[in-house]
Amino acid sequence: MVRTNRSTVGGFFLAGRSMVWWPIGASLFASNIGSGHFVGIAGTAAAAGIAIGGFEWNALIVVIILGWLFVPIYIKAGVVTMPEYLKKRFGGQRIRIYLSVLSLFLYVFTKISADMFSGAIFIQQALGLNIYVAVIALLAITALYTVTGGLAAVIYTDTLQTIIMIVGSFILMGFAFNEVGGYENFQDRYMTAIPSITGNISAECYQPRPDSFHLFRDPITGDLPWPGLVFGLTIQATWYWCTDQVIVQRCLSAKNLSHVKAGCILCGYLKLLPMFLMVFPGMISRILYSDVVACVDPTECQKYCGANVGCTNIAYPKLVVDLMPNGLRGLMLSVMLASLMSSLTSIFNSASTLFTMDIYTKVRPRAKERELMIAGRVFIVILIGISIAWIPVVQSAQSGQLFDYIQSITSYLTPPVAAVFLLGVFCKRINEPGAFYGLTIGLVIGLSRMITEFVYGTGSCVNPSNCPAIICGVHYLYFGMILFLVSCIIILGISLITKPIDDKHLYRLCWTLRNRTEERVDIEPDDWVEDDNEMDVEEPEEEPGFCKKAIMCFCGLEQKKAPKLTPEEEAELKKQLTDTTEKPLWRNVVNANAIILLCVAVFFHGYFG
């Protein structure tokens, strides 16, 4: 951690481009899998069967797209954040600011809120502690090592926590399958797991779905229709894995491109695990605790978990608290808290990067490096304040299944962003007006659906929502597909009737020009310019006091100045940071492994389809 030089922007935000493949793969997995996954995926599995595991397995294909197509362009472009890439690609400030603000909103609405809510459910089931005390303590510890360590701390702790998470979840899976008597018994008993108190409620509201053990479901009547799972989900996954700051930042910190690809492959193999570690245990929880987890009568559900619409969200925590012996229960509690902290550290670190490099530099274009470092750390503290204030909102929004809530919000807001990145990387004809209006009109369409759904409520099987079918009747994955297509048409249409961007501005920013070696002329100069003049004047510096020294050390703002680089050294450093060359041996090894991973993905989809 000390070697990554925390007192520079490159060191704090990109771990000095020194990370090797295995921490990157583990960190990608740990950043993606939070306690929201344990609670949300197991809950949806308890309610509807294995199809939710398809959300995880879709990533096996998308991580290959990330490592082989997107990251080489980002590295060659020499960018730190995703909005920075869009600014170099299209010019103008409005797209970059739009994306930064949208990302920060998504962090609060989906990532932070879901992690808080699921962490709170778990703590409530396990310890009966006051939710606020527990969450605030967690946030304090999480913030402490994010603020003091930067990305290297986040990646190393992610790696450790991934090991704890996987070991603990495997142990619980063993206990769960032992309890139901193996896989064959599990299939039979799940189909008969219904609550004893059903009242006058329709049987379809509490009986397991006939297609519970199929990934691919009916395109019209299925709860997760197969075209949505194959195409709609891939659009969301492209946004999440290929353009999201949390994920891409991990890849940009790699030593070289082979390490990026190997990290993506490791992450792909790890993504096979949630079906076995979360989906099956969630379904077993329904078998063992049918009256609680599968409750359907609103008054009964209120009694068990404080929510009228159902208690499937408590499936995984209930399994841990009731099934595991004392010592292992403590281990599993630490797994859940580790996963919550892992997710939050990733979000806080990446959110502070976005704020510092994309929003703060608009307000203070000539800010010095130290000022940027302090601004990033202060913003993490502000974000924590907002997160704590958001807890009551999350507590009251216990509508049905947590994972469906996260995925539906993502489907409404992110397809236009996926369209802009995809077309921006692979089609050089796209220009700034096309991208901006595609994003804006797409956002209006997405918000119209999201707000309508919030106003009417999503309802439940017992009390359906009275939202107009023309708006809410379209499945959210289908809506995401329609929104993506509309955004693409708008982006291409407006770009074709407006002036194209000259090639000299696009060298190494899009796929067809990725190998050009000429100097790229930026459409606009960088916002943040290091003030060289102050380096030339030697000012006598007084020795700082003890308090100031302690604060500087805590924030990684070492007193000694970085050595001044000659123009040749600066050029060499820039070349290192944008280098995508690979040794032929390792390139062939990672390519062969990618093909094996894709075959594994096809096999699992076929077997459980």
Protein model, in words:
The structure is a single chain. By secondary structure, the chain is mainly α. The protein contains 27 helices and no strands. Helix 2 packs across helix 12, helix 7 crosses helix 18 and helix 7 packs antiparallel against helix 19. It is globular and about 75 Å long. It starts with 8 loop residues before the first helix and ends with a helix. The relative contact order is 0.17. About 2% of the residues have low confidence.
Strand content: under 5%
Q: What is the averaged pLDDT score?
A: 81
Element-by-element helix/strand order: HHHHHHHHHHHHHHHHHHHHHHHHHHH
**Number of helical segments with 4 or more residues:** 27
**Distance separating the two termini:** 44 Å
Biggest sheet overview: none
Task: Flag low-confidence runs.
Answer: 528-541
Q: What class would the helix/strand composition place it in?
A: mainly alpha
Outline:
globular
User: What is the CA-based Rg, rounded?
Assistant: 25 Å
Instruction: Give the tally of β-strands.
Output: 0
Helical coverage, percent range: 55-70%
Question: How are the SSEs ordered, and which strands pair?
Answer:
Elements: H1 9-14, H2 21-32, H3 35-48, H4 53-57, H5 59-77, H6 82-90, H7 94-127, H8 131-180, H9 182-190, H10 226-243, H11 245-252, H12 257-270, H13 274-288, H14 290-293, H15 298-305, H16 315-323, H17 326-363, H18 369-396, H19 402-413, H20 415-426, H21 432-456, H22 469-472, H23 476-496, H24 533-536, H25 546-554, H26 567-577, H27 584-608
Describe the structure concisely for a colleague.
69% of the residues lie in helices and 0% in strands. The chain has helices at residues 9-14, 21-32, 35-48, 53-57, 59-77, 82-90, 94-127, 131-180, 182-190, 226-243, 245-252, 257-270, 274-288, 290-293, 298-305, 315-323, 326-363, 369-396, 402-413, 415-426, 432-456, 469-472, 476-496, 533-536, 546-554, 567-577, 584-608.
